[in-house]
Design goal:
heterodimer; A: mainly alpha; B: alpha+beta; 15 helices; 9 strands; 46% helix; 14% strand
Chain lengths: 384, 382
């Protein structure tokens, strides 16, 4: 059990041992870095490839059809076929585009998406860098994606792109705030920014989602995460039915694929971080730790794709309204609730904080009541 | 109409002119809207039409009366049966033709099935415009296919049916048509329940559709709007009831009325209308008599179409097509070709108030308002 659990850690150690036989000692640090980095650089794109397959298959099933099933068994080679297609397609740059910006944006947008993987604890001991500011690192990097989306939209010199880029910036600024605030309760309780210590604080069944503030925090963090990676119902920056394809209207071939890669890798890493912060990360009985991490992460990814298959899109003002009028007050209150939970004695604290949470949710609901849509009753002419 | 900016901007801003279409994912064809945007808000909107103009009316004037029947299929290519119906009705009025009882019933069955097809599909596409990545539209297609199978069985074609003739229909129903139709109609309410359960009370759909694209009653009447759009604005006007053409006054059905005239009302009125259509179909299938499917006298229709010469005069035949009032105005000079042939296309006339509904709304709203009008470019541009 221990060996399966630590398979990847032991593998890396074995590789290092083997290399130390013929490499000088001082290079070992770099070798270690290279091994971890290579693992991430391979893992990221492969995950992305199979997430596209998974999404197409799943949305296909939701829509009463098969999804890809021609290339390989169950269409498993579809991502490879897609990759070849993307690489061989003509790379079209609009005549009046800012060529440098148009080229730079899709290339750079992948970097933060890959870097985030370095702080994701994939299993016990399986984190590339145990940064003491892990969560902050994640939040900071994930928000830089917006800059490159905007560069892409500006560089394309297309009005649809520009609208998409503007929407993206507005959306990110709004959702960044509840996102950061929704992790604060975790930091408050754990007392550390490090992703590893967050997971270790949830040992046994003490996952944070089982506490009142954890439920609220989890929902807000996950929703803002969905908004952060521009997925339905928050996919306004690329809202197909309105602004054609938003910021990537003018991209084709591999550049387009890179945007997709960044989006899917972000979707995966955000699910991973949400699982880390609230669902106990790799904690869990019986199965190896990395298996638990992947189960939880893919469950969240599944929910994201489920959203994609079922929900319509929100409108710009409703999107902003949701962030500022619902999520922000809820997260602010949630910090208070977490503090309350932390300072009360064990059996009592759950009940009291749950009551406070319910009260606050009710207040927010009542305050937003005018905007809650109402059911209508229709009448008929010419009764029969 | 002029849109005034509500708050003076703190710094100098510019409006953005965007051309939505003619190639755009959700303009339902080659329709174009030249939109002036202030941020995301629509300040001006100019619809540009005519990209699909095929000279339908002039072509018909150079063709025999029956010769343009298949071309009417191509007007609103989703509801070819009702297009045939309106044209046949106009010619029958002109030539004073009687339609046998059985043919009347067949026509009503086909028209109501077409209404089901059209409304189901429209709701699917409206959800697509709302951003629901194809899921509703594919379920709508699934149900539509079943009805198209029926059309194929009787007319030989799924979409371009060309089924009606002056004084009746082209061929009689196949022997298994009625049981098959009954099966579909019996299952349809269940599908609608499921559809509605998933969509009608979805918070996002409600938030997106309610109070968007409001069309006041007076404006709707003044602009000549017809069909579900007019009824969603609260005007109880249904040509099936008003004219009672064909045999519609024999059936018991109600006409659902909206209150606000927003996108949600237009959406919901259509769902309720489908339920009423099912009622009509139930009755029609139960009561359909045996007999002739096309009139014998007059030497019309399938028998000698080239010599069909209606007497001099003019006639206007109209029906309640799924999209609104579809009318054909025909002038005959007693020859084998119509002297004047004019179509009153519901989706074109319903489209004329697009700007009034869109001003002050967001870009995303313009798309769903357009979707809720229910246009088919084949009919708009003709």
């Amino acid at each position: 059990m221990e060996t399966i659990d630590q398979a990847f850690v032991l593998g890396k150690r074995a590789a290092l041992n083997w290399m130390s036989a013929f490499l000088p000692d001082w290079t070992m640090v770099f070798v270690s870095i290279i091994i971890s980095a290579t693992a991430i650089v391979i893992f990221g794109p492969v995950t992305m490839m199979y997430l596209t397959w998974f999404e197409r298959k799943l949305v296909g099933r939701i829509q009463n059809r098969f999804g890809p099933n021609r290339v390989g068994p169950w269409g498993l080679l579809q991502p490879i076929a897609d990759g070849i297609k993307m690489l061989t397609k003509e790379d079209i740059v609009p005549e009046h585009a800012d060529k440098f910006a148009h080229f730079l944006a899709p290339v750079v947008i992948v970097i933060p998406a890959l870097l985030i993987f370095s702080v994701v604890p994939f299993g016990r001991g399986m984190v590339a860098v145990d940064l003491s500011i892990g969560i902050l690192f994640f939040l900071a990097l994930s928000s830089t994606t917006t800059i490159w989306i905007f560069v892409a939209s500006w560089g394309s010199r297309n009005k649809f792109s520009l609208l998409g880029g503007m929407r993206s910036v507005a959306q990110m600024i709004s959702y960044e705030i509840p996102m950061v605030l929704s992790v604060v309760p975790v930091l408050l309780v754990v007392g550390s920014f490090s992703t590893v210590s967050i997971v270790e604080a949830q040992s046994g069944w003490n996952w944070f989602i089982f506490t009142p503030w954890g439920i609220a925090g989890f929902l807000v963090f996950f929703l803002t995460g969905v908004a952060e990676v521009n997925r339905t119902p928050f996919d306004l920056p690329e809202g197909e039915s309105e602004i054609v394809a938003g910021f990537h209207t003018e991209y084709s071939g591999m550049k387009f694929a890179l945007f997709y890669m960044a989006e899917f890798m972000n979707a995966f890493s955000i699910s991973g971080i949400v699982a880390t912060a609230y669902l106990g990360g790799w904690q869990g009985p019986w199965l190896p730790s990395w298996a638990w991490f992947f189960i939880k992460t893919y469950a969240l990814v599944f929910v994201m794709m489920w959203f994609r298959g079922t929900f319509p899109r929100l409108r710009v003002d409703q999107l902003m309204g949701f962030a500022w009028k619902v999520l922000l007050p809820l997260t602010l209150a949630n910090i208070f609730i977490a503090a309350l939970w932390l300072n009360l004695e064990s059996p009592k604290n759950n009940l009291i904080s749950a009551l406070v949470l319910v009260a606050i949710v009710t207040i927010i609901y009542w305050a937003n009541r005018p905007e809650v849509p109402k059911k209508r009753i229709y009448r008929y002419a010419y009764e029969d | 109409m002029q849109y005034e900016l509500k708050d003076a901007p703190a710094f100098e801003t510019q409006t953005l002119e965007v051309s939505l279409g003619p190639q755009h994912p959700s303009t339902h064809g080659v329709f174009r809207m030249n939109v002036v945007l202030d941020g995301e808000t629509i300040v001006k909107l100019k619809p540009v039409m005519g990209y699909l103009h095929r000279n339908h009316e002039k072509l018909a004037e150079n063709m025999t009366w029956l010769g343009s029947m298949p071309y009417t299929d191509r007007l609103d290519y989703i509801c070819s049966m009702t297009n045939n119906f309106a044209y046949a009705l106009a010619v029958e009025k002109l030539a004073n033709l009687e339609v046998p009882e059985r043919a009347q019933y067949i026509r009503v069955i086909m028209a109501e099935l077409t209404r089901l097809v059209n409304h189901t599909l429209l709701i699917g596409f409206l959800l697509n415009d709302l951003g629901a990545f194809f899921t509703p539209v594919l379920y709508a297609f699934r149900e539509r296919e079943k009805i198209l199978d029926l059309f194929e069985a009787v007319a030989g074609s799924r979409m371009m049916c060309n089924y009606l003739r002056f004084g009746g229909v082209k061929v009689d129903l196949t022997s298994d048509f009625i049981p098959r139709a009954r099966q579909i109609i019996n299952k349809y309410p269940k599908f609608l329940d499921e559809f509605e359960k998933l969509l009608s009370e979805n918070e996002i759909l409600m938030a997106r559709c309610q109070n968007v694209g409001v069309l006041p009653k007076e404006l709707a009447i003044n602009a000549g709007i017809s069909g579900p759009m007019l009824r969603a604005s609260g005007v109880p006007y249904d040509i099936r009831k008003v004219d009672g053409y064909s045999i519609y006054n024999r059936f018991k059905f109600r006409v659902p009325i909206g209150e606000k005239g927003d996108v949600y009302d237009r959406y919901y009125v259509r769902i309720l209308e489908m339920r009423e259509s099912i009622k009509i179909l139930d009755q029609a299938i139960k009561e359909i008599p045996d007999g002739e499917f096309i009139t014998k006298e007059g030497g019309v229709g399938a028998r000698a179409p080239r010599n069909f010469k209606p007497p001099k005069g003019d006639a206007y035949g109209r029906i309640e097509a799924p999209k609104g009032e579809l009318g054909f105005y025909l002038v005959s000079d007693g020859t084998v070709k119509p002297y004047r042939y004019h179509v009153r296309p519901p989706s074109f006339i319903n489209l004329t108030i697009l700007e009034d509904m869109c001003l002050g709304q967001k870009v995303a709203d313009a798309i769903i308002i357009l979707g809720s009008i229910d246009i088919v470019l084949g009919e708009v541009d003709r």
